[in-house]
Design brief:
globular, binds iron/sulfur cluster, 12 helices, alpha/beta, 4Fe-4S, TIM Barrel, about 15% strand, binds pyridoxal-5'-phosphate
Amino acid sequence: MIPKPTFSRQQAPLWQHELRKAFARPADLLEFLQLDPALPALQLERLRDFPLRVPHGFAGRMKKGDASDPLFLQVWPQAREAEDTPGFSQDAVGDLHKLKPGGLIHKYEGRALVVATGACAINCRYCFRRHFPYSDAIAARGHWQETLRQLQSDPSIEEVILSGGDPLSLSDDKLAELVTALDALPQLRRLRIHTRQPVVLPERVDDHLLSWISGTRLKVAVVIHANHANELDSSVAAALERLRDAGATLLNQAVLLKGVNDSVSALEDLSKKLFDCGVLPYYLHMLDRVAGAAHFEIPLEEATALMQALSSRLSGYLVPRLVREDAGAPSKTLLPW
Ligand SMILES: *Cc1c(COP(=O)(O)O)cnc(C)c1O
Ligand code: SF4
């Protein structure tokens, strides 16, 4: 059983306060990082669809004065986003057609993904989410009855994957309500949460969150989305330790990104740092070919060469699986190297 929160609800949690303070104006971020105010950027009016958004704590892990910092590159809206590149589209992974009422995407056997919310604590420029029509999809907007009904109608589903957006953008009251309902479905064994918040907003891992994670009978896996070792500072390590103490198994999914982590040493450092934090590398994703993100793409031959070099340097369990999402395939496509 998930305990009802016994905490005072007088004040909004600290993480929501941090979220409201996040950098939203390119000029403010440049000033904070002591970068050239004239650094080229996407035109403001084009930025409106997918704005800049960076929590202060995450920006604090970027190197001042370095426009090629691997964390900065993940969030900086480059002018090149406006370029049209053949092969890059609005719905790169074909999910828009798969979305059922209640925010459910059931593409793969045994597990179903719930698009819980469209909101994120950070806006990552490589993300497929930038073109997602969330208003139609979101499970949290009163559609949970429909989500639960759909799950019950297919007893082969034994794992629910909370995704988004970032599912931890929802309040703990909402999440506890959903997880209590999932807990009561006997067919379910596992709850997986795909979230970047323990990394970009470690304040999010507070007592309210931990109470429903430790309270469910479901086995919980939290897949954090870290792309570079510099993202994992001591505040993140502490948040991850608390998640493990609450009983969650921690995995990481990274995206292979040009300029960010496309070197053997960057990938090696990431795997080692993850394990220091009690997280196992799970997937290394090829970029989803989404319009606006072409400047991050690494060719397949280069990716496989990186994997070969990486696997010669690391223990087997520290080597992530190189995968690509192919529309219509029965699982992620494992890419041999
Ligand atoms: C990636 C994904 C999953 C999970 O796949 P795993 O290989 O189990 O990590 C499930 N559903 C959808 C729709 C996905 O895109
Ligand atoms: S869904 Fe993940 S990758 Fe995309 S913007 Fe949100 S946190 Fe970043």
